[in-house]
Automatic annotation (TrEMBL):
Belongs to the AB hydrolase superfamily. AB hydrolase 2 family. Residues 16-211 form the Phospholipase/carboxylesterase/thioesterase domain. Signal peptide: none annotated. Keywords: Hydrolase. Pfam families: Abhydrolase_2. This is Phospholipase. It comes from the Bacteria.
Length: 218
């Protein structure tokens, strides 16, 4: 069985209740260290876990699934992509019991390939996810279930993308926005004048958005 390695930081502030969880999913070629600094910018009640993708790349770094093609026209390998979604699905469902977080308060932040995995999970196991932040990724139509679960209703999704992204073009983000528009989700979309990355204003938006999500729970 494939094991997902993690970096973890326990909540900086605790209460008598099980804490919310923020799970970070990195992009192609990175590792669990890549997004971990975001832990410094989120509500101190979050238990933060950064997961390492399962596939080791020959030149270093890790991937959730293999890619063909070229930047801007990347082609997912369907076999490793399907395995990655199944693996991440089990991991997200099982993780709260292992670390003691509230299973109804699991938030995902995914970048690039991690955002693609996160968005796929949002429509496949919405009952296990409280909200999604997807940066520089897209909702892959091939990963949509035939029937959308009822638990998808009111799912908060924050989508961010760079206007000048040459790895995953912004047109992919626009297609995702169009796919999400008829769904019963609470979708927020924001573009920034950058390439394939996370804009500082995007970090501030994520911080505010997650804080508002936690406040709504209370």
């Amino acid at each position: 069985m494939t094991t997902i390695h993690t970096m973890e930081r326990k909540p900086r502030q605790t209460t008598n209740e099980a804490p919310p969880l923020l799970l970070l999913l990195h992009g192609y070629g990175a590792n669990e260290h890549d997004l971990f600094d975001l832990a410094n910018y989120v509500d101190p009640h979050f238990y933060v876990v950064s997961a390492r993708a399962p596939l080791t790349l020959p030149w270093g770094g890790y991937a959730w699934y293999h890619l063909g093609g070229t930047p801007g026209r990347l082609i997912p390998d369907p076999t490793t992509r399907a395995h990655a979604v199944e693996l991440a699905q089990r991991f997200v469902v099982d993780l709260p019991a292992r670390i003691g977080t509230n299973p109804r308060r699991t938030y995902l932040f995914g970048f690039s390939q991690g955002a693609i995995i996160s968005l796929a999970l949002s429509v496949r196991i919405p009952e296990a996810i409280a909200g999604i932040v997807a940066s520089s990724g897209y909702l892959d139509p091939e990963l949509l279930p035939t029937d959308l679960p009822e638990a998808l209703t009111n799912m908060p999704i924050l989508q961010m993308h760079g206007t000048y992204d040459d790895v995953i073009p912004v047109t992919a983000a626009h297609h995702t926005r169009a796919l999400l528009e008829p769904l019963p989700v609470r979708h927020t979309y924001q573009e920034y004048p950058i390439g394939h990355g996370i804009h500082p204003d995007g970090v501030r938006l994520m911080q505010q958005w997650l804080g508002e999500c936690l406040a709504e729970e209370r």
